[in-house]
Write a structure and sequence with these properties.
The chain is of the alpha/beta class. It contains seven helices and seven strands. The chain has a single domain, classed as Rossmann fold. Helix content is 36%, strand content 23%.
């Protein structure tokens, strides 16, 4: 299957219609990711089709559990090469996105790709999330993370940044579990856990959604 078809048909499964311009921007993202990946280790996934599925479509799959809205504030922990937040921002430009990535070289790539894709309303913080400057420690509507710590540690780390009734949306492997004690300590409730197989693949993911009590 051609790369463009993987992107467009895969996105359609999540109710997203990618324009020609958006597809071209995803191609540009892919090109820059491959270029930088030769110099720094951004991702172990190397094949174009796998990047399209396991990074781009995996990121877009989150819209199956929350609806991005204009002005919504999203915090992404351990952003790496920008997933899942930047693909979401590319499709929903009204999102206000903060990317937290403590590895300086990866943060440099994030700033580069944000400029290259001409994305407005995106901030990169190259610190550990525990070191976030005071002006950024304000409630977020949504906190996301993918390859970031063990799941219970991720929940405990992200919960303080959520506003009341905000959502934490985590894309994880299918085998993980979360104990009630960790949820109680974080002050969040498990709203749903959705299992899915990513389009054009047999790659399985679990999307966890937690809410913070009002």
């Amino acid at each position: 299957m051609r790369l463009e078809q993987i992107l467009t048909t895969g996105a359609e499964e999540f109710g997203i219609h990618l324009s020609k311009e958006q597809v071209e921007r995803f191609f540009l993202y892919l090109s820059e990711l491959r270029k930088w990946n030769r110099k720094i280790n951004l991702t172990a996934i190397r094949e174009d089709g796998d990047i399209a599925v396991k990074h781009f479509l995996d990121s877009l799959s989150l819209v199956g559990v929350f609806t991005p809205q204009e002005g919504m504030k999203l915090l992404d922990m351990g952003s790496g090469a920008g997933f899942p937040a930047l693909p979401l921002k590319m499709v929903y430009p009204g999102l206000s996105v903060t990317l937290v990535e403590s590895v300086k070289k990866k943060a440099s790539f994030l700033r580069h790709i944000i400029r290259t894709l001409r994305l407005d309303g995106v901030v990169v913080v190259d610190k550990r999330i525990e070191e976030l400057p005071g002006e950024l420690v304000s409630p977020f509507d949504v906190v996301t993370a993918r390859a970031f710590r063990e799941i219970e540690a991720t929940i405990l780390t992200g919960a303080p940044f959520l506003k009341s009734n905000g959502l934490m949306v985590l894309s994880r492997g299918p085998e993980e579990t979360v104990g009630d004690e960790a949820l109680a300590k974080a002050g969040v409730t498990l709203e749903r856990k959705e299992m899915l197989t990513l389009p054009c693949s047999d790659y399985q993911r679990a999307i966890w959604v937690f809410s913070k009590a009002g």
